[in-house]
Write a structure and sequence with these properties.
Radius of gyration: 59 Å
Strand content: under 5%
Mean pLDDT: 82
Distance between the termini: 120 Å
Order of helices and strands: H
Structural class: mainly alpha
Number of helices: 1
Shape: flat
Length: about 350
């Protein structure tokens, strides 16, 4: 408790300006994102689509795809069809002919192998087997003699030398080397233990471990104080933001709203009723008068043009009635009568 309370007070004093600055930056960033970055991003996205994507899409749809289709058809006509014809009319008959020749040659070679090469090969193999048996018998005798000589001249003296000279000397040297290594190892072990291990162990037990525990406690308290101070500073920052928002509303928003409601709205209504609506009615009347004048002038011009054409060309000839060859007597078929046998009038 003696460490926690001072640490939290100091950390709160240090963290509060940072948290208030952070909250102000967050508010400014959100305002900037909503009012500037999103519209600019949408405009850039639309501009990028219009300048980068749409031309390539248009090029792909209206140029590359038709050109590729035309090239595919042209390649099929110029390459695939001739290659198919060449394969069917030239390569396939040539391959069949070569296959027949190869089958005939294979049959000839099989007959030659079965009638000539196989009997000759069997005779040669039998001759070689006889020669091999003779050579194996001679080699076995020579190997037996060489083995007996090597056993009595090399192996037996080597066994005696190993058993009575080399083995005792090796055991003595091994015991001497083991004793020397054991003594040197013991000396080095105790020297390293006294000079290195014991001081390091004492430093770890009596210095580093207590210091680490103290630092761990301090670090834990500082971390908890930072978290607590960040939360408290957030509450203080929100309260300060609410106070500033309330002051802004009282100082700017409410007076502006009052001015809009009590001054601008009645003035606007008066201007609308006394100026704008009469001006609109006068403008509509002027428009109707102008349209009527234009319609009268258009009719007068049309009549003058008809009179001038009649003066130059004359009266147009009346159209003759055209015989449409339709029956006009009593016996015509109408919706109220019928010509069937059952419902005939």
């Amino acid at each position: 408790m003696a460490i926690r309370l001072p640490v939290r007070i100091v950390v709160l004093v240090l963290v509060l300006p940072v948290r208030m600055a952070w909250d102000a930056l967050v508010v400014c960033g959100r305002f900037l994102r909503d009012t500037v970055l999103r519209p600019v991003g949408r405009a850039l996205l639309w501009a990028g689509w219009a300048l980068l994507v749409w031309p390539w899409v248009t090029l792909w749809r209206h140029v590359l795809v038709p050109v590729g289709t035309a090239l595919g058809v042209l390649g099929h006509v110029l390459l695939v069809v001739p290659l198919r014809w060449f394969h069917a009319r030239v390569l396939t008959p040539m391959g069949h002919a070569l296959a027949r020749v190869a089958r005939a040659a294979g049959a000839g070679l099989a007959w030659l192998y079965a009638r000539v090469l196989a009997p000759v090969g069997r005779a040669v193999v039998r001759a070689l087997e006889g020669v091999g048996r003779l050579l194996a018998a001679a080699g076995a005798g020579v190997w037996a003699g060489a083995a007996w000589l090597a056993l009595h001249l090399v192996v037996a003296p080597a066994r005696v030398l190993h058993a009575w000279v080399l083995a005792p000397a090796g055991r003595a040297l091994a015991r001497l080397a083991a004793a020397v290594v054991t003594g040197a190892g013991a000396v080095l072990y105790w020297t390293a233990r006294v000079l290195l291990v014991l001081p390091a162990l004492a430093l770890w037990r009596w210095v580093l471990v207590p210091t680490g525990r103290v630092l761990a406690v301090v670090a834990r308290e500082v971390a908890e104080a930072l978290g607590h101070a960040w939360r408290v500073a957030g509450r203080i920052s929100r309260a300060a933001g609410r106070v500033l928002a309330t002051l802004f509303r009282w100082i700017f928003v409410e007076p502006s709203r009052w001015v809009y409601r009590t001054v601008l709205t009645p003035v606007g209504h008066v201007v609308r009723d006394l100026v704008l609506r009469p001006a609109a009615r006068a403008a509509r009347a002027v428009g109707r008068t102008a349209r009527q004048a234009l319609d009268g002038a258009r009719d007068t011009l049309r009549q003058a043009r008809a009179d001038f054409r009649r003066l130059l060309v004359g009266e147009p000839r009346p159209r003759k009635a055209v015989d449409r060859r339709e029956p006009t007597g009593r016996g015509t078929r109408t919706l109220g009568s019928s010509t069937t046998a059952l419902t005939k009038d």
